[in-house]
Specification:
- 2 copies of one chain form a homodimer.
- The first copy, chain A, is α/β, with parallel strands linked by helices.
- Chain A folds into 2 domains: 216 residues, Rossmann fold, CATH 3.40.50; 150 residues, Phosphofructokinase domain (Rossmann fold, 3-Layer(aba) Sandwich), CATH 3.40.50.460.
- Chain A is built from 13 helices and 15 strands.
- In chain A, the strands form 5 sheets. Chain A has a 5-stranded mixed beta sheet with strand order 3-2-1-4-5, sandwiched between helices. The first copy, chain A, has a 4-stranded parallel beta sheet with strand order 7-8-6-11, sandwiched between helices.
- In chain A, a hairpin with a 4-residue loop joins strand 12 and strand 13.
- The longest helix of chain A has 22 residues.
- Chain A is elongated and about 70 Å long.
- The relative contact order of chain A is 0.18.
- At the A-B interface, helix 6, strand 11, helix 10, strand 14 and strand 15 of A face helix 6, strand 11, helix 10, strand 14 and strand 15 of B.
Chain lengths: 424, 424
């Protein structure tokens, strides 16, 4: 295959994670080793910025800034929730696609990397197909990123290990706190974590038990298992009787037997048309306080969990960077329309490598926690899950601090001169 | 003064912090140097456990466990919210006091240390006065502890620096996240932190700005400043216009112009009769979404913030241990009815020492953020506050980890043989 010489463009999409920038660093640092890649550009705010020709010159960044991306959470190039929706808005999507290729051509983009989750892999796949259709020679690679861990084919997703590590530390610490306050009256604390359709994040907090059944979390409610109020209240009562306190972790998308999210606020939808959820823990608190007359508090970690670079997983950060580097190598090897996936070789000791999966297999498929990785009663992930998740949180990312706080990298983002008329 | 030989009893009370155990370690390790102290006992669940004669032998703990208390959050001896309420329940309080002294005498307790906040210092003060009244020779010392930072006389309270450090890291990281997601539609994130009457915890998050006005938090709402909806919404609008996003930190006890907490759930009271608050951020979200039609998310850190040993302040932990050691030395020097206080010598460079303050000056006095430490418009603490708070979050407590999670100490808690009939 003839070597493809040209410029590289990378952009980030969807909800940030603690290690999404590590993947960007992986791409950029590996790109520096390949002479076929000339300029290295970043697209601001994902494809939204590319549509607006808002590109920045990443060769103008300090080398230490690129290295610093390995421990800097959130999306250094900014992100978006913008979909090429050929089903619902075919004309707009077609117009957007035309504009994207105008920008690619204007800047001689021959390598395009899109770091994101399900929706973003779908976007990358469509861009790849369009490049083929237009015979525009460009290598398109998706780079996996999602705290939700719901991409198929990859053993797990970069971003997942770090959210689990932080959430586990939080559950453990809150458990110490609530346990040390517990007197005969008993108490309950409900910690709501992210996870819309898949319960991977909530399930991961089982690692906080460190193998001791008496340790928190005592109950984990997953979106995959319909919420059964009576059985739940019985389990809370039993736990308080045994320990004087009960720590419950719930995924934001926990559903009742009718498949309705118990904490859904149906009045608001995000840009992808998903219902905005924010109330599962509050709903459960109402139930526990109302039915059991048990002192109950809630914690809503929200965005804090996916941005907690100060306690990110070193394993996760390493894998995220490796996915970026593998995507780059795949592209320079002539591949397009692929996503690096993490392949587990063994759990103990933990060994993995990276292979490439066609994007067509990945886009818009959601991968949930297998039923046989969850206890029969549905209240805790079992040993199979623990064997899977345990290696992913190992190791601490070292972060520099200044004045007692993390010193994260902010890129200069020197703009690339625009070559096109403004988007209309 | 004749040397007082006998046993030591230490207990913890009120809400835990990341460094309340460091104070216990300070007392115990210093006690090991004083021959007048024979046995070292811990009272479980504060005075509630002492009333029940639930004492544990701290000389039976591993030395490394005592050292490990320096980085272990929450109350290793467990705590309580139990008040000797001579005003409302004088007969019960008098009976409790009799029982406490039966326990003290039965176990030859001559040194009593009570680690806690306002209410706990009041309890310590009453026990000291009672010992004097009974001519029971016992040295009673309060040891300051409260994330709320509302004890008078001491420059600040052990526990405060750590909650501020963790909350600042969270605000900074959430700011990176929300900022990197911000597109033209704008967005708002409201982070609710603890602080019932005093806004010290909320105010402390100003340090996350690191001196840059554009950095989050953009607005900090304190219980000390009546909430003005119109001015608040104007500021949110201006902030979003400038930055595309706005991070708001609010103390749980933010009040309207009538002095009513905007997020109060008046139906539930804690053991001290304070209203339970949990809804300020949700209330503000309603206002922002309703009036500005701006995408708004909330974070409720709850207990996580006061238990976050994984990102505790080394300065705070050192001061907490020093307060414990100073209390012990004060007691062996013959003092009773005092609390160690931190005296600031200079802010830059940060220098401090510890002196003793009579408990009578401390008990039940609340210390709020001075008005002239807050900007005229009330939305941000000013330079005076920043100079005060900045040194308190410096340094990271090193914690051992195991399987990727903090490895905190759990005491053996070998019970001391009971010598009294059960409490009736």
């Amino acid at each position: 295959m003839a070597e493809l010489i040209g410029n590289l463009l990378i952009a980030q999409s969807g909800g940030p994670t603690s290690v999404i920038n590590a993947s960007v660093a992986g791409v950029i640092l590996e790109a520096g080793r390949h002479e076929c890649i000339e300029e290295i550009y970043g697209g601001l705010n994902g494809i939204l910025g590319i549509l607006n020709e808002d590109l920045v010159d990443l060769n103008d960044e300090l080398q230490k800034s690129i290295e610093g991306l390995k421990y800097t959470p959130a999306a250094a190039l900014s992100t978006c929730r913008y979909k090429l929706d050929f089903k619902k808005k075919p004309e707009k999507a077609a117009k957007d696609m035309d504009r994207l290729f105008e920008v690619f051509q204007a800047h001689n983009i021959r390598y395009f990397f899109y770091v994101g989750g399900n929706d973003s892999q779908d976007t990358a796949h469509k861009i790849h197909e369009e490049a083929v259709r237009r015979s525009y020679d460009m290598r398109v690679m998706g780079v996996p990123k999602t705290i939700d861990n719901d991409l198929p084919h990859t053993d797990h997703c970069p971003g997942y290990g770090s959210v689990v590590k932080y959430n586990c530390a939080t559950v453990m610490e809150v458990g110490f706190d609530v346990g040390s306050m517990a007197t005969d009256g008993g108490s309950c604390c409900i910690i709501e974590v992210m996870g819309r359709a898949a319960g991977w994040i909530a399930a991961g907090t089982v690692l906080a038990k460190q193998g001791n059944p008496a340790n928190p979390p005592h109950i984990i409610l997953l979106p995959e298992i319909p919420f059964q109020e009576e059985a739940f209240l019985k389990r809370v009562t039993e736990t308080v009787a045994a320990n004087k306190y009960c720590i419950v972790v719930c995924g934001e998308g926990v559903k009742n037997a009718n498949g309705e999210e118990i904490g859904a606020d149906k009045t608001s939808l995000d840009a992808f048309g998903h219902a905005v959820l924010a109330g599962a823990a509050e709903k459960l608190k109402e139930i526990v306080q109302g039915k059991l007359n048990l002192k109950t508090r809630t914690i809503l970690l929200g965005y804090a969990q996916r941005a907690a670079g100060h306690f990110a997983s070193a394993t996760d950060a390493e894998e995220a960077a490796a996915c970026g580097a593998a995507a780059l190598r795949g592209a320079t090897d002539g591949k397009s329309g692929f996503m690096p996936k993490i392949v587990r070789i063994s759990s103990q000791p933990y060994k993995w490598n990276i292979e490439l999966q066609p994007l067509v297999d990945v886009a818009n498929v959601e991968h949930c926690v297998p039923r046989d990785w969850i206890s029969e009663d549905g209240f805790l992930p079992n040993e199979k899950f623990i064997e899977y998740a345990a290696p992913l949180i190992v190791g601490e990312v070292k972060i520099p601090t200044e004045n007692g706080l993390p010193k994260y990298v902010v890129l200069n983002k020197n703009p690339v001169e625009k070559k096109l008329p403004a988007r209309v």
